[in-house]
Amino acid sequence: MLEIDELSVSYRTGKKMIPAVGPISIKIASGDIYALIGPSGCGKSTFLHVLSGIIKDYSGLVTLKDEGLNPQKHDIGFIPQNFGLLPWKNVQKNCLLSLTIKEQKIDSSLTERVDYIMNKLNIKSLRDRYPSELSGGQKQRVAIARAFIMNPDLLLMDEPFSALDALTREEAQELFIDIWNQYRPTTIFVTHSIDEAIYMGKKIVIMSHCPGTVVEIIDNPLFNTENLRENKEYLKLSAHLRNVVKKGWKI
Ligand SMILES: Nc1ncnc2c1ncn2[C@@H]1O[C@H](COP(=O)(O)OP(=O)(O)OP(=O)(O)O)[C@@H](O)[C@H]1O
């Protein structure tokens, strides 16, 4: 369980502290996947940066698996918009990065897991290439592989598919959900796409204008359903979300 209690962040600009996000209180069960949508500048990235440990200066309480959030103790995977691959390491080394940092012994069951994930994401033949030698979609698949190889307590993604063209994006979303369903790490992702939120979010969190708070949490009945876009419920949910956006992110 990830428990967030009255979390707020303000940034210092000159002598002033400007509120950026919160207060936010939310409980996320282990193995859930949450889509976070909200207006530009409402604090979505700031929120993810707290959970990933990049921002340490916040008020409120965040606990993961009954312990105060601590990136040194918890395994937290973060896929940023630009995929976050290290340009000087090849695909294989990027994929194994978290294991190398933790000095984890790579035994046969771990090798099997790494092989399985790399095969599943179709990147095994790219293992000796460097990020500059990969397409956007390939970089994205490496970033996803790296996150799942890490086996994180919490997986965070900031608009993970936004840099991809429409077709590659759909393909990447499908691959992601396929592998997510197998390992089910607790996941929070930010998206600007209503379609992506409905396809990939078991719960959809709507945030208000800056400083962003939670306006609504939708239990998405369409998560993991086949032929999603042909479903009547899809049109209903999509219309509701579009209406919220039109009304200025209010319900
Ligand atoms: N380093 C910073 N210093 C001061 N203010 C900042 C800083 N980073 C972000 N902000 C402000 O904090 C607020 C939240 O920013 P954040 O990037 O978290 O929003 P966001 O919802 O992710 O935006 P977008 O959807 O446009 O990517 C914004 O008003 C932004 O201008």
UniProtKB/TrEMBL annotation:
MF GO annotations: ATP binding; ATP hydrolysis activity
Alphabetic keyword roster: ATP-binding, Nucleotide-binding, Transport
All residue ranges annotated as the ABC transporter domain in the record: 2-234
SMART domains associated with the record: AAA
InterPro entries: AAA+_ATPase, ABC_transporter-like_ATP-bd, ABC_transporter-like_CS, ABC_transporter_ATP-bind, P-loop_NTPase
UniProt cross-references to SUPFAM superfamilies, sorted A to Z: P-loop containing nucleoside triphosphate hydrolases
S-adenosyl-L-methionine found in the keyword field: no
Pfam families: ABC_tran (PF00005)
Superkingdom of origin organism: Bacteria
Protein name: NitT/TauT family transport system ATP-binding protein
